[in-house]
## 1
Amino acid sequence: MRWINYDSKLALLLVLLLSVSTRIKASSEDGEFNQCEHIVKKWASSSLDSEINEDKHILRDLLYFLHVPRTGGRTYYYCFLKRLYANSSECPRSYDRLRLDPRIKASSEDGEFNQCEHIVKKWASSSLDSEINEDKHILRDLLYFLHVPRTGGRTYYYCFLKRLYANSSECPRSYDRLRLDPRKPDCRLLVTHDDYSVMSKLPREKTSVVTILRDPIDRVFSTYEFSVEVAARFLVHPNLTSALRMTGRLRAKTRGGVSTLDIWPWKYLVPWMREDLFSRREARRRKGWPSIYGDDPYDMEDVVMPLHKYINDPIAQEIVHNGATYQIAGLTNNSYLAESHEVRHCIQKYQPLGEYVLDVAKKRLDNMLYVGLTENHRESATMFANVVGAQAISKFAGSNSRKGLVANSIPGQSSLIPDIDPDSNYHLSNSTYPKPGKFSSTDTVEATNEDMTTRKLMEGYETCISSLRSTQSQRRANSLKNIRPANFTKEARRRISKVLFQEITSLNYLDVELYKYAQGIFANQQQYAMPTKVGEKMTRSRQW
């Protein structure tokens, strides 16, 4: 009974304490509520007082799109607003660019725009003035193949140009051999990813320029896929440190050799993707692997950088988007021009200034000996054989310089195909852009009209491209095994959202316009470059 009485007294005491506490709390909460009510009412009153009651149906000078997350606002941004407003019209750091910076005034923007406009106009004027207006339809002493990445230019190099020009005719360090070495005065062939600014190192009056363009959207996809494909080859190593050490040792042993990491733009894109792939693989390993949701290889974040993040990264903005226009204009980050960075920066900041770059790029396309289109593969190849091939055959057939055609090489043999090792033990010594295999003794044989014709050139091309594609396909398949289940296919590309396609189109507005212009040039070329009869020389007096 004593314990019961004690417990009862304790319970009574607790009830009294709780009652007092409740009264104190209620009193305290009433005070807090009143304080909060005052704060909210004050805010609401000032907010309503600050509203402007003018006609809301009139679009004012500044449009503020209040984007509530996950409402589809990005669709409106890319599919409406990016088409209605120039990049230069956007407030600094607006939308997905952190927070608004109110310190930049309109007057400052106007001043910067005027300065940029002056810089770009000055560059454009000097660029157009330096163009040579001689007959563009004649193959001159030096052929400069301006290879825009991911357009199929390497096929032309191995399956056309390697049959038309001897190794000894190539300019030192051309194509994938870093940058041009102009010390060899009598070279006849320059095939390179260097942009048009390399013309400052060449004898303009003796140089013919050719190039191939590709649909800009497809080229962005291809650049993304190839960057990942090459980077994925390093995943045979346990970690990034191991891969870098092995790479360093192999490159030290093969001095003078060339790797993908030496070549623009891959020397920037591949290391970026390589580091990203290792980082994602390590993150999955720490979590105990699995995860991976969905089957879209372009949005498989556990394995590879999603495409939508890739295209919005500053590296892609600098190198990938509008890459063809900048390359033909001579304004890439690999340019020989000192002012290229400043001009490119101004164009990227103020979209309307891109028109000046387009004018220069279009003028240069007009002055080229040949402009091909990746999408019109067969017609482009035939045209190349009849425009460039026929003139080269004619030009070298009458020469005694021993720098003419590789006439007797058997198309499709290993001598025409890069020595690519697709095995899992792939290292940089077996570069994605390896040195081409040596040609036979025909490298020093002087061709005659009987040795080579445009028909034989095209027949050799067909055999060569078949072998080359087979090798490249196998290499790609082996590489993508390292990032399974991600696998880039045409079917997967067709499933990409329209919004993402629109975003890529918007980001590549210059390339889109230049490609349309190139299509017009291509159509005109077709009218005047029909296949010639076997052995028939190109008529130099032909007017296009």
## 2
Amino acid sequence: MTPSSQKLRTPRKTSFLRNGRRCPVSSPSAATCPHGPHTPVARPFCIIESPVQMTAGSEQAHQREKIRALEPLKAKLVTVNEDCNERILAMRAEERYEISMLKKEKMNLLKLIDKKNEEKISLQTEVTKLRKKLAEEYLHYLTERDARKILIADLNELRYQREDMSLAQSPGIWGEDPVKLTLALKMTRQDLTRTQMELNTMKANFGDVVPRRDFEMQEKTNRDLQEQLDSLRDDYEEVRKEHEILLQLHMSTLKERDQFYSELQEIQRTSTPRPDWTKCEDVVSGGPDRWHMLAEGKNSDQLVDVLLEEIGEGLLREKDFFPGLGYGEAIPPFLRFDGIVENKKPTKKDVVNLLKDAWKERLAEEQKEKFPDFFFNFLERRFGPGDAMAWAYTIFENIKLFRSNEVMSQFYAVLMGKRSEIVYIKHKETVAQLLKEMTNVDSQNEGLLTMEQLSTVLKSIFPFKKEEKIQELMEAGGWHPNSSNADFLNYRSLFMEDEEGQSMHFVQKLWEQYMDEKDEYLQELKQELGLELRDEVTLCKVREALMNIDPGLDKQTLNSYLSQAFQLPVTELPEEGEKEEGIVTRLQAALEQLQMADIRRMGAREHEPAS
């Protein structure tokens, strides 16, 4: 803008009245006006673009840009609002449907109550009619009784007149003694009077008595009606109680619905989404096929363990050396070493085969030594003294990592003293015995058994298992509800193992049932003792509790359980009743020691028959 354009234009004079209004006919040169004296005012006219206007323009442009930027957010807000409105409408529709269903149910109950009331009224009406009919019958019988009395009296009078006439007309009567006849007539009249009095007494005493047959009939009818009335009253009371229960149930359902809705809102607000496990397909080595094989039949917690094992396996293979743990007391004997040891990097299959060989040598060993010492000696014999420590660290890291592997997890538990090796040995003996029994039943040696034969073998090997446990084992073996007892099963496939030592589902279910039954057995023992875990328990109480929950325990097995619980040799255990009160331990410690050992039920429960 040029400086000349910023100059004020020539002011234009305008006449205004004294009160501030502009005169419509005045001009700057007018001296007088009918509207009154004028006050000339000069009004400048200019075109100035001040900095304030420039700032306001830029601010408006900025605001327009901001509005354009917020337009997508507005559309998203409208979309979210519509979704929320649709959810609210859906929930209201569901509530209206529930309310309508409850109203229909209420109307049905009201109709049922009205029907019962109508039946009650009809029965009362019928009882009233029967009572009225009974009264009419009673009056009818009274009238008939009076008529019979009058008729009998008339008949007696006629009979007397006839006898008098016959006596008067009979020629032989005059030959009798008149005194005798008079006396006979007198006595006869006295008898008649006495008889008449007895008859009147009987009528007075039993005039209101009805016949027994009619009375019994009316009594039976009255009893039936009373039973029907009582039945209707009971039905009505039952319907009324059911109606009250339904009302209470309706109220509690409404409260639960509101509570669940609140919990749903809270969960939707605070919960995190479930992980998408399909993302692991591209990360795990082997691709989607191997991941599907690893994830089959596992829950989220187990999938986390599998994923950690896969990650740990990769990290373990990247390590070339392990740092030694030293010679501390807390360090297992086979890991006591200073310095670094080499990571031999075996495959899982190699580790499993090595552990199986160790178990075979352990079972064939005559002079039993401690399991950690045996393990290190086995490695020395297998790989030599120079590589034994490296293999000990390598195998230890592998079995500590792969907890989902059956062979590794069981060997780790025995090696670290968390489980007795007799548990593993007994389990393998049970599996071998089961296979042997099935082979004996298979007389044709075809490797096939019927479902009925499988059930018989399971019940003979496990006589104290519950029926549902036997059913679970049969389902794990391939039985399903649609199967018939004649269907064949390849029983040898139940005992096969994959290249990593994993057993089939049947053997795994057998191990799971053993662990569950052990936990149940120890829980029954704790309940029988009635003590807290921190309380102390004596050997006498434990002995008595074991005999109560398992009456089939023999003395040798009972002593082995007590020896394990109190960590005493069997030879040092006192006989029953001999200084048992002095041997005490904490209940938690006793249960932990029994959990490590091979504990199983030796007899059927008292309230349950054996399968």
